[in-house]
Design goal:
mainly alpha; globular; single chain; 132 residues
Length: 132
């Protein structure tokens, strides 16, 4: 296997990963309930931009993942929890391991750990702010 080397590699990783997400019994309903079928191709491209920025430093991502996660949590009556992020990470790691190995593959794993933790903390803080 090779390492992640290009946008095509990142696109393959993101596409394969979200194909798994969409059929997952726990995560699928969340993602499919918030992203319409015809919006998935654009979403995959946006997430490819996100990971290109994170892995290669190519500044091409535009968006606010924190706000998006907070909105989804609010729409789900604040029911997103650590299990959801754990399942997400497990699928992400498995997808990386199925396709790639090397320093950038490892960087994608480490970045995802940090991102998942940060997003969960952000959701938790947003919930507290709504109560106060």
């Amino acid at each position: 296997m090779k390492d992640i080397e290009s946008r095509d590699d990142v696109y393959k990783l993101v596409s394969d990963f979200y194909s798994k997400i969409r059929i997952d019994t726990v995560l699928g309903p969340i993602f499919n309930g918030h992203i319409e079928d015809d919006k998935w191709p654009a979403h995959i491209n946006k997430l490819t931009d996100f990971w290109m920025t994170g892995l290669f430093g190519v500044v091409c991502f535009k968006g606010n993942p924190t706000e998006a996660h907070r909105k989804v949590d609010k729409n789900l009556n604040h029911t997103i929890d650590q299990e959801h992020f754990g399942l997400w990470l497990n699928l992400w790691f498995n997808t990386i391991d199925d396709l790639f190995e090397g320093p950038l593959a490892n960087r994608a794993k480490e970045a995802s750990r940090k991102m998942a933790t940060g997003q969960y903390i952000s959701i938790f803080k947003a919930r507290s702010a709504e109560v106060n």
